[in-house]
Amino acid sequence: MSKYQHYIDRVNSGGTTPTERTTNRTFSQVEKSFMNSRTLSEIFINRSSELVHSIVSRVKPEGNFSKRRFLLKPKSKVELGYYVTYKDNHYMATEIIADDFFPELVCELCNAEFPLLLGTTKVTTGKDDFGRPLEEKIPIVENIPCILTTKTYSIIDNAPISLPEGSLNIKIPYNPELPV
């Protein structure tokens, strides 16, 4: 180790190339301004107990609380179908902007719960007259928050498949572990 190694480490702490140094400085400035925002809120993502910092705003066309935009810290991972809990309401991510500097989730309010049958379990409830065990199958059901909408007819609807009028659309996130 040379006598200049401490100096070299300090100079290269932001990055080894000018582009890398500029990018790292920009990330730190964006994160500082994000954390000092007046509209900073705390949310939960995917039903975890860990608080995540976010800037929450309404989506402009509707302007009500059923559709919200959640701006997350730089370099945060975002995916479609994330559940966001904000002020005791559950939202589901229906659109994402996966930018490194400004990752964003556009979420809709989950207005219903979808009961999903995960399987059944056998429970012994007693014995019959001959001493044989009596078993009852009890379903294992998980209620998944979902977005429930109704379909009304529209000529300007740009859907790949025309659904009949009066049908219900249920949006739930894809999970390969669930038996759907």
Q: How would you describe what is shown here?
A:
The chain has two helices and nine strands. With 180 residues, it is mainly beta. The radius of gyration is 25 Å and the shape is extended. Strands 1-2-3-6-5-4 form a six-stranded antiparallel beta barrel. It has a three-stranded antiparallel sheet with strand order 7-8-9, with no helix packed on it. The N and C termini lie far apart (59 Å).
Radius of gyration: 25 Å
- Amount of helix: 10-25%
The CA-CA distance between the termini, in Å, is: 59 Å
Shape descriptor = extended
Main structural class:
mainly beta
Biggest beta sheet summary? 6 strands, antiparallel, barrel
Taken in chain order, the helices and strands follow as HHEEEEEEEEE
Query: Could you give the order of strands across the largest sheet?
Result: 1-2-3-6-5-4
- What integer is the average pLDDT? 83
Task: Point out poorly predicted stretches.
Answer: none
Strand content: 35-45%
Q: With helices defined by DSSP (H or I, 4 residues minimum), what is the helix count?
A: 2
Number of strands: 9
Question: What topology does this entry show?
Answer:
Elements: H1 5-11, H2 18-35, E1 40-45, E2 51-58, E3 67-72, E4 83-86, E5 89-97, E6 104-109, E7 112-127, E8 133-150, E9 168-171
Antiparallel strand pairs: 1-2, 1-4, 2-3, 3-6, 4-5, 5-6, 7-8, 8-9
Short recap of the structure:
It contains two helices and nine strands; from the N terminus they run ααβββββββββ. The protein has 180 residues and is mainly beta.
